[in-house]
Hints:
Blueprint: H1 2-17, E1 47-55, E2 61-62, E3 66-67, E4 71-80, E5 93-94, E6 97-98, E7 110-122, E8 125-139, E9 145-159, H2 177-185, E10 187-201, E11 205-212, E12 220-224, E13 233-240, E14 242-243, E15 248-258, E16 265-274, E17 278-285, E18 289-298, E19 302-311, E20 322-331
Antiparallel strand pairs: 1-4, 1-20, 2-3, 4-7, 5-6, 7-8, 8-9, 9-10, 10-11, 10-12, 11-13, 13-15, 14-15, 15-16, 16-17, 17-18, 18-19, 19-20
Amino acid sequence: MTYLKNILLLLTFTSTVVFSQQLPQYSQFHRNQGMTNPGAIGSYDFMDITLGSRYQWLGLNNDMQGNVAPRSAYLNFATTLKRKKIRHNPSLRTSVGPIKNPELGTGKLKHGIGGQLTADEYGAFREIGLSGTYAIHVPITEKVNISLGARIGISNHTFLAEKAQVLSHMQGGPTDQTYQNFSENGYSRMFMDVSTGLYVYSKRFFVGISGNQLTQDFVRMGSGISNFNPVMHFDLMGGIYFNLNYDLTLMPSLSMKYMNPAPPVAQLNIQVEYKEWLWMGLGYRFTDAAVIMIGANINKRFKLGYSFDYSTSRFNNFTAGGHEIVLGLMFR
């Protein structure tokens, strides 16, 4: 029984370490806002399919069982119902520069739908989620829309006993019968996941607020020992587009996340885009990491992005940083 108590204490400590990591922190949040805010789904008048992957804490390994660093992946789909054919005319220029975001539809009522498949793994824990999203977009003026979106889905949280590290010097060791029963049975639980978001946007700016995991663990299925309880997350993000000249656009953006009792997390990005084709950027996640980003839109059909996080906290003594890769298809 003493050995079981030690195991449960270890699980409690592990859950505490990853408590602030229940939902991934994406460095390229400005490039796929619908991942965080359901209200952003359908803001662009084309179909968008995005595949993303994020690897954190590179170099932090478990000597017994391999990599324990957080890893995340997602597949996101978004489109506008009854979208119109987009004809982009690059000759449309004004005295302050070209019209940016020509496919960001404003000034009309429209509906957006989407779907999302996510997978997160950190140490001996894995979470897989599947959800659907709907958003209604209402014009405030001819140039500004406001939208309200909701995402409903399910997520499965599993303990991977084969990835748990067992300290052989503990009483009973890995052959302890209580531990054997626990590792064989493990646990797997299903949770209902609900998110909502409010989003205001134009061709010159965007701002949104959203809440995720709003139902927490009120609706759940499954059995077994579990030390995981979904906690509500709240996100605020915004950005502005500045035309520097006919070819260059500057976009500063800010994301703020809060999950009680963890402290708020803020990230500031500054991105420069050339001819709506090539973009580069820098970011800073306060007290955590510096970020460098680069990406491109190819033939208005393919998009790709890459970012590298360099830890600026004391944690940088144990990790080489993190990578984030985003690939996408756009159908007009």
